[in-house]
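Shipment paperwork, digital attachment
Item: protein structure file
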Amino acid sequence: MDRLQALEVFVAVAEAESFAGGARTLGMSAPSATRGINELEERIGARLFSRTTRVVRLTDVGRTYLDDVRAILADLETANDGVSGAVGKPKGMLRLTSPVEFGRIHVAPILAEFLYIHPEVTGSILMVDRVVNLAEEGLDIGVRIGPLTSAGLMAVKVGQVRRVVCGAPSYFEKHGVPQTPEDLARHRLVAATTVTSTNEWRFGQKQNHAVKLSPQLSVTSVAAAVSLARSGWGLTRALSYQVGPDLESGQLQTVLEDYEPEHLPIHLIHYEGRRVSVKVRSFLDLARERLRQVPSLK
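Attachment content:
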């Protein structure tokens, strides 16, 4: 096995945490993948994986080596793209990350469209409500909602969202409309803990108006909280894109608009300091166009 192929096998096995899984990714046999890793470890004089009967995990040396190898393979891909020029076709694996609900509502449909247009590309989305390090996770593109803090990345703004308090018209008919944030203490609240991890809800442009509340119900799913609010059970707090269709249809209405914090920007982020691969550039172009057309992101 040549050195380049051995590096590709190493990354595939590391990501799958399995020789068989890594081999399937590359369309080769598990024994061939095992031999390739053994040869690589012998060549560099270090053990990259700790092996058990159930799982294969990176050693400390292996984790450091993985970051370097990913960078090498990415540079090679962009170099190949540079030779093929702008007419080069997107191909290979495209790895994305986004917040859970944003991924479900927006990113997954755009990626599906992209894969339909470019059948030589395969894709995956890591949907998590936390800030993900693209380099450490081996990702090409990420969605960030809120202020940017990561250095060494390029960012393309595609929209903005508000943090809103909302409820169904039927709820307001029975319980009235809160006029100030303090009024929320007298209302039935359902909190999505992925959005509001504490019982302190902050309002105002600089979020300097804090109100301590005790929601009667807390859930770890934004979709569940929105569904309960839509049913008229109570009020919830969400990002405007999460309730965009409900606001447009009138199933939900926002309150306390004058107390809303400043808008949160939405960016697509990717690596800086190297030429962008054809697949990444092509996806960014499509995603930017699609996301900027969404009314709830303007």
